[in-house]
Amino acid sequence: MPRKTIADYLVYDTPQRLAHAAAEVFAKYAADGVAARGVARIAISGGSTPKRMLALLAEEPFRSQIDWERLRLYWVDERCVPADHADSNYRMTREQLLSKVPFAEENVFRMEGELNPEDAASRYEATLRNSFRLEGAEAPAFDLVLLGMGDDGHTASIFPNTSAIDAMGTLVAANHVPQKDSWRITLTWPVINHGRRVVFLVEGQAKAEVLREVLLGGYDPDRLPAQLIRPENGQIGLLLDAEAARRLPKSGKHGDAETGTLELTR
After folding, report:
1. CB 226 within 8 A of CB 153
2. Where is the Glucosamine/galactosamine-6-phosphate isomerase domain (predicted)?
3. Is the N or C terminus of the chain more exposed, i.e. has fewer CB atoms within 10 Å?
4. What is the pLDDT of residue 152?
């Protein structure tokens, strides 16, 4: 039988409202993880929306809502650059959030982009196995995985027609991206799909058509790798701004957001 996934989305009229909604989601699943298991493990991505979200998390009311001592922070992907490089996802997070809240260094699990890509991927896989205490073929179950999506249909650092699309036997992959003439380190899509909650943050008019294709078009993950994200729990959340969502059907309202639901089949 085809596998079905329910995609629920909330559409906000501005990128700032979208970022605020993302901060609320972050705080909620951080609290849920602590309540259920004593710690919360969250994997984040780079990009403009996460940057605004991180800045909000460092301010009230979110700063006081989050139990920073029990939060474990991971990355979905990283560019192969040093930690202090302007393109580093870790650097952005450090500047926007980590330097402003009481976060213990031992609870921050960054990808080492300064290393050889294969070594960096191998070391991050070991980090995941050790910090989650995994054995054998087990995959980590993040309390929340926050993803972006490019206007080419990529997510994490799983780009169209690259080797990471076929990386199923590892937790972390070194992925050469010819389109960017660079290497990236990325969680593999089976790991992302094992997350307890997976949420896309997408904004901008340039994403509208590809988002429609990812959600409503034929299944073609080599061309649209974001279609690989079909969580095992059968649910995807999407937080969108009005420009990104302009090609999607809306069916209702939730607070200050328009809502929609789609059933995805592959």
Report:
1. yes
2. 14-235
3. N
4. 97
pLDDT band at 196 (very low <50, low <70, confident <90, very high): very high
Domain extent at residue 70:
4-140+150-183+214-225+244-265
Please report whether residue 154 resides in a domain: yes
**Residue 87 included in any domain:** yes
Residue 189's alpha-carbon distances to 10, 70, 193, 211, 230, in angstroms, are: 23, 26, 6, 18, 9
pTM of the model: 0.97
- Concatenating the DSSP letter of every residue in 27-96 gives HHHHHHHHHHHSSEEEEE--SHHHHHHHHHHTSTTHHHHS-GGGEEEEESEEESS-TTSTT-HHHHHIII
- Domain total for the chain? 1
Contact present, 244 and 14 (Cβ < 8 Å): no
- Return the DSSP state at 173: E
